[in-house]
TrEMBL record:
This is Phosphopentomutase. It comes from the Bacteria. Keywords: Manganese, Metal-binding. It comes from Salmonella enterica subsp. enterica serovar Chester. Pfam families: Metalloenzyme. One of its GO terms (cellular component) is cytosol. Gene3D superfamilies: Alkaline Phosphatase, subunit A (3.40.720.10). One of its GO terms (molecular function) is phosphopentomutase activity. Belongs to the phosphopentomutase family. Residues 2-58 form the Metalloenzyme domain.
Amino acid sequence: MKRTFIMVLDSFGIGAAHDAADFGDTGADTLGHIAQACARGEADKGRKGPLHLPNLSRLGLGKAAEESTGHFPEGLDKNAEIIGAYGYAGELSSG
Protein backbone atom coordinates (compact mmCIF):
# COMPACT_ATOMS: atom_id res chain seq x y z
CA MET A 1 0.00 0.00 0.00
CA LYS A 2 1.38 3.42 -0.93
CA ARG A 3 1.13 6.23 1.57
CA THR A 4 1.16 9.98 1.23
CA PHE A 5 2.35 12.38 3.90
CA ILE A 6 1.91 16.08 3.36
CA MET A 7 3.98 18.12 5.76
CA VAL A 8 3.08 21.76 6.22
CA LEU A 9 5.52 23.66 8.41
CA ASP A 10 3.77 26.99 8.98
CA SER A 11 6.12 29.94 9.42
CA PHE A 12 9.08 27.74 8.47
CA GLY A 13 10.03 29.35 5.19
CA ILE A 14 12.36 28.06 2.52
CA GLY A 15 12.79 31.25 0.56
CA ALA A 16 10.97 34.51 0.07
CA ALA A 17 7.68 35.12 -1.71
CA HIS A 18 7.74 36.90 -5.06
CA ASP A 19 6.37 40.06 -3.43
CA ALA A 20 8.55 39.92 -0.28
CA ALA A 21 10.16 43.29 -1.01
CA ASP A 22 6.73 44.94 -0.86
CA PHE A 23 6.43 43.86 2.78
CA GLY A 24 9.99 44.28 4.03
CA ASP A 25 10.75 40.56 3.81
CA THR A 26 13.48 40.55 1.17
CA GLY A 27 15.81 37.63 1.84
CA ALA A 28 13.32 35.72 3.98
CA ASP A 29 14.51 32.12 4.38
CA THR A 30 13.97 30.62 7.83
CA LEU A 31 15.62 27.28 7.04
CA GLY A 32 18.58 28.91 5.32
CA HIS A 33 19.16 31.34 8.18
CA ILE A 34 18.93 28.60 10.82
CA ALA A 35 21.37 26.46 8.80
CA GLN A 36 23.81 29.38 8.47
CA ALA A 37 23.65 30.13 12.20
CA CYS A 38 24.31 26.47 13.03
CA ALA A 39 27.26 26.35 10.61
CA ARG A 40 28.75 29.45 12.30
CA GLY A 41 28.39 27.87 15.75
CA GLU A 42 25.71 30.35 16.83
CA ALA A 43 23.22 27.63 17.79
CA ASP A 44 25.39 25.50 20.06
CA LYS A 45 23.03 25.45 23.04
CA GLY A 46 21.81 21.93 23.77
CA ARG A 47 23.26 20.84 20.41
CA LYS A 48 26.46 21.44 18.50
CA GLY A 49 27.66 21.90 14.94
CA PRO A 50 25.96 22.18 11.57
CA LEU A 51 22.24 21.61 11.18
CA HIS A 52 21.61 17.87 10.96
CA LEU A 53 18.18 16.77 9.72
CA PRO A 54 18.77 13.34 8.13
CA ASN A 55 15.14 12.24 7.87
CA LEU A 56 13.89 15.54 6.46
CA SER A 57 16.88 15.56 4.08
CA ARG A 58 15.86 12.13 2.77
CA LEU A 59 12.33 13.43 2.31
CA GLY A 60 13.69 16.25 0.14
CA LEU A 61 13.70 19.31 2.41
CA GLY A 62 17.14 20.44 1.24
CA LYS A 63 16.29 19.92 -2.42
CA ALA A 64 13.01 21.84 -2.05
CA ALA A 65 14.89 24.69 -0.37
CA GLU A 66 17.46 24.69 -3.17
CA GLU A 67 14.72 24.89 -5.81
CA SER A 68 13.04 27.73 -3.92
CA THR A 69 16.12 29.81 -3.08
CA GLY A 70 18.80 28.73 -5.54
CA HIS A 71 21.13 27.49 -2.79
CA PHE A 72 21.33 24.34 -0.69
CA PRO A 73 21.09 24.84 3.11
CA GLU A 74 24.43 24.49 4.90
CA GLY A 75 24.80 21.31 6.91
CA LEU A 76 22.08 19.30 5.23
CA ASP A 77 23.16 16.24 3.25
CA LYS A 78 23.15 17.23 -0.41
CA ASN A 79 23.79 13.60 -1.39
CA ALA A 80 21.00 12.10 0.72
CA GLU A 81 19.04 9.38 -1.02
CA ILE A 82 15.63 10.97 -1.65
CA ILE A 83 12.89 8.53 -0.66
CA GLY A 84 9.86 10.63 -1.53
CA ALA A 85 8.50 13.45 -3.62
CA TYR A 86 9.09 17.02 -2.48
CA GLY A 87 8.16 20.54 -3.43
CA TYR A 88 7.54 24.03 -2.15
CA ALA A 89 4.60 26.39 -2.41
CA GLY A 90 4.17 30.11 -2.70
CA GLU A 91 1.24 32.19 -1.57
CA LEU A 92 -0.94 33.49 -4.39
CA SER A 93 -2.61 36.32 -2.51
CA SER A 94 -0.85 39.61 -1.91
CA GLY A 95 0.82 39.80 1.51
